[in-house]
Amino acid sequence: MIYHDSQHRLWVLSGPSSSYVLHLDEADRPRVMHWGPRLTPEQAASLLLRLPRPGFRPVEDPLEGSFDLIATGGMCYGQAGLQVRFADGTRDLELVFTGQRRTDRELVLAYADRHYPLTVECHYRLYGDVIERHLVLRNEGEPVTVARADSATWVLPRMNGYRLGSVRGQWGAETRLHRTELPYGETVLTSRRGVTSHQANPWAMVDDGTAGEEHGAVYSCALAWSGSWRLTAQRLPTERVTLSAGAGHDPVTWELGTGEEHVTPVCAGLFTEGGFGAASRAWHDHQLRHVLPHAGEVRPVLYNSWEATGFDVSMDGQIRLAESAARMGVELFVVDDGWFGARTHDAAGLGDWYPNPHRFPDGLGPLIDRVHELGMRFGLWVEPEMVNPDSDLYRAHPDWVIHRPHRRRTEHRNQLVLDLSRPEVGDWLFRTLDELLAKNAIDFLKWDMNRPFTEAGPDERLWLGHVRTLYDVLDRLRAAHPHVRIESCSSGGGRVDLGILRRTDQVWTSDNTDALDRLDIQHGFSQLYPARVMGAWVTDSPNPFTGREIPLDFRFHVAMAGVLAIGGALTEWSRADLDRAAELVADYKRIRPLVQHGRQYRLLPPGGELSAVQYLAADGGEAAVLVHRRGRRFGHPDPGIPLRALDPDGRYRDTATGEVHHGAVLLTHGLFPDLAPGDYASALLHLVRE
After folding, report:
1. CA distances from 456 to 88, 387, 679 (A)
2. Is 61 marked active-site?
3. Calpha distance 13→104 (Å, rounded)
4. % of the chain residues with pLDDT over 70
5. Which of this chain's residues are annotated to bind substrate (predicted)?
6. Known catalytic residue: 448?
7. CB within 8 A of 118, min separation 6: which ones?
8. Domain spanning 2-48+65-290 has what CATH number?
9. DSSP bridge pairs for 245
10. Catalytic residue among 448, 497, 505, 587
11. Does residue 361 register a pLDDT over 90?
12. What is the helix (H) or strand (E) element at residue 98, kind and residue range?
């Protein structure tokens, strides 16, 4: 609900448990009066009677850091989310309020520069307690250079301390949780790679340093953008803190021409109480309700052939794998790299999206038909934003790649990046994939993007245009082929964000499938993103990435925490392992609705001897618990693991043993899973309320 107090120029944006209160001061600056627990309009208006007197700071603006639209100009010396340069060299903006548009869920506050014909609209949209924001810039004068246009600046209240939570990583080690005291000055999280990146992810959480998994207030924001980005956390000496996030990165600028409009991507913000667990569950719920295109679906158990075959792809080999996968209970069979063009190694073929005539002389149809006969859906790996210099596409259109005159074209992974900001490239991309899907009964695309931009130059139209065209192509393909589902992949977890999730059904979390490493990767991933989108593979032992040997059950129980998939060389697995894998797939299918659509509780984080995660049905009637022991030390017995959010008066039956537990006991003393002795022991427990 959005309430407007015209007398006091006050707006109150309220969800079920939180409110965001804005006030236009005498200089038309939108000051954030409150972001936190829900207030009534009367309570919000009373804040204007309690404005503290600014202290004696003759060389500072005492209100710096309290506005949710911060433009360069005046005494703004900190982070400014809106920065422009007019044709005459003027950089300051002087914005005046020109009006509002408002519904129960949407608010638009409009501003115009006092002199130059540039207007700015601040858009707000309520989804429960989540507020989505973006800017719209319109220029009717001479071209304007835009140096920065952040989607939103979030103003936090004063707290006793400030701790910044985010994820860090690299290829094969993505989304590892990192929390640290927020230092004074500006802390910048960013990607300059043209994609979301493995190294950072465009979200942040801030608490006062005392919040835990299930207690404390948490302020968070997330940017819905799949290209380069920047998120700046600013802590001023006055103890004001802001989070400002937007597309693009320093020092790139772009020109807003006469009559042009620029719409920033969405940045969403959320205040929650109940610790990091409550914040995560609220973000998960928001994505399941308002972001994912087919959120209500149950994602199928997937098999991917890459680790079994590499580039050695053949019709007979894929059919043998498909038959083994079907016997295991797999529902979606995906052929990875090596099926197209001259792609018998990684230096050729990218861009030529037709079946290799030697490997598939009759096209993909016979393989697809066999997969469908086995009762599975069929999927295909593509990397359509890339091209190998050794390809028909590059020989025909060498100018289509991102490059700069007089500079060498950096080949990484023997690849170059197609410039999707060029209309002819975007048109080709859509036509090519549309034809591939129209001619073949393909149900699923694994859409990969394996290298960052190089030689991209300073033109932000390329940095923005590439992502916008990517979104447009995905939207058009989904409209033309509504049965096709898409996975976002970028050398693993290099393109995971709320922008790509509006157009895809799941993401590939990491190329690292080592189950022990995955506990940390998946823990960080779950801080913002739901299990419903988290692809998790069971692969061979020793692990092809780390060489670590881990039992089959442990590998499965780690992968069951998301969208279960198998990626091993099944033709080399023992009969005992194949039979046990089929049992574990069946176990996962029984708890899959809880994992993919239930509420997640991180009971024990990875790092200790035990880690555990719980999934609870919306009505509280079922729970699934995954427990992992990475190593047993000193012969200590495993402690009980208290569960969460159960009915204390309820009775819960273990579906495997038939044992009945009292809810109050599970909440206090916990479960005592029957783990095998030694390292890498694990268990799945499925409880049903009687």
Report:
1. 27, 16, 49
2. no
3. 9
4. 98
5. 171, 336-337, 413, 446-450, 489, 511
6. yes
7. 84, 86, 93, 112, 137, 138, 139, 140, 141, 144
8. 2.70.98.60
9. 152, 231
10. 448
11. yes
12. strand 95-102
Mean pLDDT of the chain: 95
Annotated binding-site residue? 446: yes
Instruction: Determine the residue type at 311.
Output: F
Q: Which of 364, 457, 381, 461 is nearest to 421 (CA)?
A: 461
Could you tell me the fold of the domain covering 610-689?
Answer: Immunoglobulin-like (2.60.40)
> Fold identical between 302-597 and 610-689?
no
Q: What are the sequence ranges of the domains in the chain?
A: 2-48+65-290, 302-597, 610-689
Residue 479 has pLDDT above 80, yes or no: yes
Instruction: Using alpha carbons, select from 460, 457, 470 the residue that is nearest to residue 425.
Output: 470
- pLDDT reported for residue 548: 96
Name which of 36-50, 123-137, 157-171, 624-638 the model is least confident about.
624-638
**What does the DSSP 8-state code read for residue 539?**
-
- Please give the Cα distance from 311 to 388 (Å, whole number): 15
> Is 427 one of the annotated binding-site residues?
no
Q: What is the pLDDT of residues 327-339, one digit of tens each?
A: 999 999 999 999 9
Is it the case that residue 551 has pLDDT exceeding 70?
A: yes
DSSP symbol at 228 = S
Q: Count Cα neighbours of 603 within 13 Å in the Cβ-side half-sphere.
A: 26
The arrangement of secondary structure in 302-597, i.e. its CATH architecture, is Alpha-Beta Barrel (3.20)
